[in-house]
Amino acid sequence: MFQALPPTRFDLRFSIGDIPVRVHPLFWLIALLLGSSASLWMLPLWILVVFVSVLVHELGHALAFRFYGIRSEIVLHAMGGLTIPEAAPWGYGWARVSPGPKQEIVISLAGPFAGFTFAVLMMLVTLLAGGTLITSRLFGILPLPLTAVLPFGGDALNVFVTMLLFVNVFWGIFNLLPVFPLDGGHVTRNLLIQYDPWDGARKAQWVSVIAGGVIALFALLVMRSVYVALLFGILAFQSYQSLQRRY
């Protein structure tokens, strides 16, 4: 469910520097569905926020790849985005460069922390512009300055910046959870492989199964979010299926 979908003639294509970006049509549809409960005037703002936030996240991965000398392509798809390393010439053919475990950890963490950095920049801009930040509780637990009130621009700008803060913080925390195929799952696998080369990958899958199940229950019982509970339940089940196939 987190794999890139095949190209279509309706894809939006552009480049940021020399990093190619492809946006599948289903990306816009899912963004629209996720924001369907919002007011009609807020929907375009919400879709723009999701687009910018996911793109910033994937740019973090792409720049980390570039730091290690690996070119990559960004694909925004139905369930978010992927940064795919490009194949490099190898002999008479092509091969994908495989970073080492420590490099993989840096590349995985670069996405969420790009979003956190972007959120901090939005906070600084709000304060420098004479605005204020109001602390809200993320998931009803974490107190964070997630609501922006600017002295100009009216409600539309306040809503836009507030949604940017929320999505970049939420998306980053979401991706750091130790569940496959999220960034946190890949970080967990590479950490465990370094300490246990023989059995680290299997242990990481079990961490994904247990963490996914616990988060699904938390989402259902505490957050009262059926969507998040269903998503993590599916991811936990997929990790369990992967264990059954491979081990």
Q: Output the helix-strand order.
A: EEHHEEEEHEEHHHH
Q: Which class do the helix and strand fractions yield?
A: alpha+beta
Assembly state of the chains shown: single chain
Q: Which strand-content bin applies to the residues? A: 15-25%
Widest sheet: strand ordering? 1-2-3-4
Radius of gyration equals 19 Å
Shape: globular
Structural overview:
With 247 residues, the chain is of the alpha+beta class. It has a domain at 177-247. The chain is built from seven helices and eight strands, in the order E-E-H-H-E-E-E-E-H-E-E-H-H-H-H. It has helices at residues 25-34, 43-67, 101-128, 154-176, 183-195, 200-223, 226-246, and strands at residues 12-16, 19-23, 72-77, 80-85, 87-90, 93-96, 132-138, 142-149. A four-stranded mixed beta sheet has the order 1-2-3-4. A hairpin with a 2-residue loop joins strand 5 and strand 6. Helix 3 (101-128) runs antiparallel to helix 4 (154-176) and helix 3 (101-128) packs across helix 5. The longest helix has 28 residues, at 101-128. 34% of the residues are buried. The model has no long low-confidence stretch (mean pLDDT 89).
